[in-house]
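User: My instructor asked us to take a sequence, write out its structure as tokens, and then describe one feature of it. I'm not sure where to start. Here is the sequence I was given:
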Amino acid sequence: MGLGGELPLWDGGGRARRVATASAAAWTAEADALAHARAAAVARARRAHAAAAARAVAFAAGPERQAQALVAAARVAYLEGERGVVELIDAYRAQRETARQALTLRHQAALADLALTRALGGEP
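Assistant: Let's start with the prediction itself. The structure tokens for your sequence are:
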């Protein structure tokens, strides 16, 4: 009496090849996901940087410049006796507050620049 059939003692590395192929596909998918996530992070950082920089520039060109002009006008008016010291002090207070806001906006722009640098893989 005899038995016929194959014994899979040696499969020519087929199973190992399939495992390696599946592992490579998993690594490729993970690398693609990481690349996509990095590209999205860079795009977000670019948008945030552009918006923060635009806010800082617009504030410097508008309210900050107006506050400086207000102080200059109030100072001249005070020196010529047209306005009192209270108006001059109010103008300086307004300029100080505007300068504080401008500094906050420049700080936010610098932080956005730092975030963009990091998103691009650079060191601060």
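For the description part of your assignment, you could build on this observation: The radius of gyration is 33 Å. Try explaining in your own words what that tells you about the chain.
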